[in-house]
Amino acid sequence: MMSMQLAAITLRAMRMRMKAPFTTSFGTEWDKDFILVEVKDKEGRSGWGEAVAMKEPLYNEETVSTVWIMLKKFLIPLIWRQPPGHPRDVAGLFRHIRRNYMAKAAVEGALWDLYAMAENVPLYRALGGERTAIDVGISLGIESSVDRLLANVEKYVAAGYKRIKIKIKPGWDIDVVAAVRQRFPAIQLMADANSAYTLADADRLAALDDYDLMMIEQPLAHDDIIDHAVLQKQVKTPICLDESIHSVEDARKALELDSGRIINIKIGRVGGLTEAKAIHDLCLSRGIPVWCGGMLESGIGRAHNVAITTLAGFTLPGDTAASSRYWEEDLIEPEVTVQDGVIHVPDRPGIGYVPRRDRIDTYTLYSETFRP
């Protein structure tokens, strides 16, 4: 197997202002801080990846700062020491490094993009994807009032999004879901709790069965699959697991326990495209639907989400909304657009979108380049 002929890896600390604040049970985000990874080969080609960790350790234990350290001190030196022959080798190369999934995914994603560019194929084809168009939904944060949320739902239903996800937490749940369902009786609707509940809230969560939800996403603890199995027996609505699943082994165990009946696959959460595909393959073999979650990505990360969603098992609309949902201008050309709830997958080599270096430079706080 040939080795990828790598010449340099550049990290960029980025900050982009969102068009509107995004509120979940974790808190509110206005500015999106993240890291871009650019991997160059000796032929002058570039592959791009994005680290989706937050500024604070709220979604998981990683932060923008810890991802930078992990990449600089541990992961990039491993790549120089043992250059991968193929991007799928990266997971094995990093296996002895515990967790730090978002750091791993960022550099692995850049290598997948570079590999597809070198092979002159779209990334989605390199991954084994089949679809050339994917259905997408929208994720709506907690608002200051139910009326504001209903206005948002109306806006995105009119725009054609195939599924509406609303964030819930104790005190912002049953009445809110009821109001949305009453106004929009026919839409595909789901609720995302971001681990805001415990088993003591089982009756409250069971009350959501009355509103014909597609799923309740991660209602219980971020690291739990035991209590979710107990809860799934008490509610009719399918539970979707998110934060609990970091690997194909986590997914296998959760499915054995019937902890949930749907899995949200986030590339950053599971350590990269290779592991994301492995989880997809397991779920496909078990008849478990999956969908692609979002982490407020720029166009670079968004393009990777588009690519993975072309795999056959992604049968539910994901969170990969249009670039214009979050950004006045995105880092790619063309930007990700949604027409009637569908993204048409670009057929260019690599991620399929062209990174705009001028815009990337505009939003770069600082950068560092590493060479073998």
E-strand count = 15
Low-confidence stretches: none
Distance between the termini: 20 Å
Outline the biggest β-sheet.
Answer: 7 strands, parallel
Overall mean pLDDT:
95
User: H/E element string?
Assistant: EEEHHHHEEHEHEHEHEHEHHEHEEEHE
* Beta-strand fraction estimate: 15-25%
Number of separate helices: 13
Task: Report strand order across the widest sheet.
Answer: 5-6-7-8-9-10-11
Labels describing this entry:
372 residues, seven-stranded parallel β-sheet, 15 strands, 22% strand, globular
Verbal overview:
This protein is an alpha/beta fold and 372 residues long. The chain has 13 helices and 15 strands. Strands 5-6-7-8-9-10-11 form a 7-stranded parallel beta sheet. A hairpin with a 4-residue loop joins strand 2 and strand 3. The longest helix is centred in the first third of the chain and has 19 residues, at 101-119. The protein is globular. The mean pLDDT is 95.
SSE inventory with pairings:
Blueprint lengths: L5 E19 L2 E15 L4 E6 L12 H18 L8 H4 L7 H19 L3 H4 L6 E3 L2 E3 L5 H13 L5 E4 L6 H10 L5 E4 L9 H5 L9 E2 L8 H9 L4 E3 L6 H10 L4 E4 L1 H4 L2 H14 L3 E3 L6 H10 L23 E2 L8 E3 L9 E2 L1 H6 L1 E7 L2
Parallel strand pairs: 5-6, 6-7, 7-8, 8-9, 9-10, 10-11
Antiparallel strand pairs: 1-2, 1-15, 2-3, 4-13, 12-14
Helix pairs in contact: 1-3, 5-6, 9-11
